[in-house]
Amino acid sequence: MIRQPEGPSSAGDLLPEIENEAPPNLNTPSLLVERPVSSASAGDDRPRRDLAQIYARRFPSEEDERRTAIWHEIGAFLQRWVPPSGVVLEIGCGRGEFVRNIAAREKWAVDLRDVADDLPPDVRFQQADGLALRGRLPANRFDVVFMSNYLEHLASRESVVEQLRVAHDLVAPGGRIIVLQPNIRLVGARYWDFIDHHVPLTEKSLVEAAGIAGFRQRALIVRFLPYTTRSRLPQHPLMVRAYLAVRPAWWLLGKQTLYVGERE
User: How far apart are CA 37 and CA 35, in angstroms?
Assistant: First the structure.
């Protein structure tokens, strides 16, 4: 579920100065999963209907071309962490802005809604709750699992940790998880402007949750993209590419955090 709007001609030209900090204490009780995470029952279509209504309003189809152009540049930037010969999964794929703009040998996508018609023909789509992917998708299969503006929509902190644990089970040993996530510390009260945001996350709580789930931090860009596609992020693809190449601009406009973790 891509909430925000969101490379380079040469990955080496745009490699950022990655912020690597010592991971926080992973024994914080508030993030430990102490009860099962429940998901919508098979017969309850209300969550899907609600999502369809929300996203039809929030992301009108006439903006698809603009969003796709923006994500073409973001995908090129993220490609450095995605092997073109690998197998990629996007959880909460929406209309597939990431998965359609990344090079991979095999592409999979999951969403609670039926968005199969919105995805390219080379994407293997599964309509499913992201928390219920064990047994539905092959374990230890994926080189990269990607989530964009997704975790904040889950019901609880426990659900966030469980979702990351599910991703850990799907990723092959040594594989990666890439999370693009609005940061409530940077966004402030505007974080709650969206009715379906439930869990507040900062870069530190995201790193902590991923560590509990069994990922080792490989890269962390605290300030990366602006909060929404309707923000001051330049809209023309060349301007988006220029923004991604100029790190000081991230400090001025970046409200989303980019995390890359590796399965231990």
Answer: 6
Q: Could you read off the pLDDT tens digit of each residue along the chain, which spans 264 residues?
A: 434 433 333 333 333 434 544 444 433 333 333 323 334 444 556 655 555 555 445 444 555 677 788 999 999 999 999 999 999 999 999 989 999 999 999 999 999 999 999 999 999 999 999 999 999 999 999 999 999 999 999 999 999 999 999 999 999 999 999 999 999 999 999 999 888 899 999 999 999 999 999 999 999 999 999 987 655 556 778 889 999 999 999 999 999 999 999 998
Domain that holds residue 62: 11-20+45-263
Number of domains in the chain: 1
Q: Is residue 144 part of a domain?
A: yes
Nearest CA to 47 among 120, 109, 127? 127
Kindly report the CATH number assigned to the domain that includes residue 96: 3.40.50.150
Can you list the positions of beta strands (E) in 19-141?
Answer: 87-91, 106-111, 123-127
